[in-house]
Amino acid sequence: MAKKTIADVDVAGKKVLMRVDFNVPLDGSTVTDDGRIRMALPSIKSVVERGGQLVLMSHLGRPKPGQDNSEFSLQPAAEKLAELLGKDVAFATDTVGSDAEAKVAALNDGGVLVLENLRFEEGEKSGCSEFAAKLAAFGDIYCNDAFGTCHRTDASMVATPEAMAGKPRVVGFLVEKEIQYLTDAIENPEQPFVAILGGAKVSDKIQVIKNLLGICDKVLIGGAMAYTFSLAKGGAVGDSLVEKDKVELAKELIEDGGTKLVLPVDTHCGDGFSSDCNKVVVNSGEIPDGFEGLDIGPQTAAIYSDIVEEAKTIVWNGPMGVFEMPPFDEGTRTVAEALAKSSGTSIIGGGDSAAAIRQLGFEDQVSHVSTGGGASLAMLEGKKFAAVDLLDEA
């Protein structure tokens, strides 16, 4: 799936329409975490430093078109980008309207413009070709550097590059890196290949589990979805979070997975959802009434760590327990430490896993932390991305 990158095209004097992921958390008009803006900087600087005219487009939050969406304005993100770049960044108060048109036309070589939130326009989520054509008119070159939305078919992701057929259509460095790590892991992993899947719901990860059971040596299960598997084996789950309508499916996965599917052998439980609740560690399937499973137990954590340390390729998506709440962060911490020690390629699949690895301080000790939870999950399912497939081949 190798694609041409922004480095492969001559941008001097040309308008580059770049889709970025500036979906950053805001406190009023203040960006509280600029991580996603920083991740886009290499692609942005590549255009600016080579004399391109850069038009940036992104979504932020879930505004409702036609309503007062001022809280979702991208202006704070544009101001943060200006601060990080150390240069002026223009901001258009609309997305494809008169202000955007005027400011795109006024761009000079090396200049940067941020358009207002794409989702202020109904045409973005609907994939409207008319809206996409207006965006497409702003660029001589299209660049996708928004991995977090690569699994979507929004207008800026698919219809806009389609409308720019015949013009260069490339990926940014962030998307290039994500594709490289995730597709290599799926298509050409070094063995042993181990997947660690956590989180609350089996239903969220059915296709991922099925796909990975076909290509992994081991699939380790943690998080609340382990209790649905425990119920499927006839175990007692107390007050644990379970999906009773997915028990039959869990039975099928246990049967199909055989020795590849590794389930917890013990569980760290509490009689309330708090750090100061009464706690007990029990064998899996023996959770007493009035208690709920909140983490894998120490035996499971040790078993998982041994498997991870021997692995050559590891993909992790979903924490092992309630990692935000000590002491139920221990399972996640132990697995994260094993990942950090491993000499293999370790890929963290975005979302809560990425938050956990950062919170625990291991981000610099793993190979890759994905920027897109939903997109990385879709890629692990083996799905194709229209937003990437239509871009120019390397």
UniProtKB/TrEMBL annotation:
EC class name: transferase
Residues annotated for ATP binding in this entry: 205, 293, 324, 350-353
Principal localisation: cytoplasm
Binding site for substrate: 21-23, 36, 59-62, 119, 152
Keywords: ATP-binding, Cytoplasm, Glycolysis, Kinase, Nucleotide-binding, Transferase
Protein localization: Cytoplasm
Recorded family membership: Belongs to the phosphoglycerate kinase family.
Binding site for (2R)-3-phosphoglycerate: 36, 119, 152
Gene symbol of the encoding locus: pgk
Entry GO terms, CC: cytosol
UniProt-listed Enzyme Commission number(s): 2.7.2.3
Biological or metabolic pathway of the protein: Carbohydrate degradation; glycolysis; pyruvate from D-glyceraldehyde 3-phosphate: step 2/5
Protein name: Phosphoglycerate kinase
Species the sequence originates in: Fuerstiella marisgermanici
Reactions accelerated catalytically: (2R)-3-phosphoglycerate + ATP = (2R)-3-phospho-glyceroyl phosphate + ADP
Domain of life: Bacteria
A Pfam family it matches: PGK
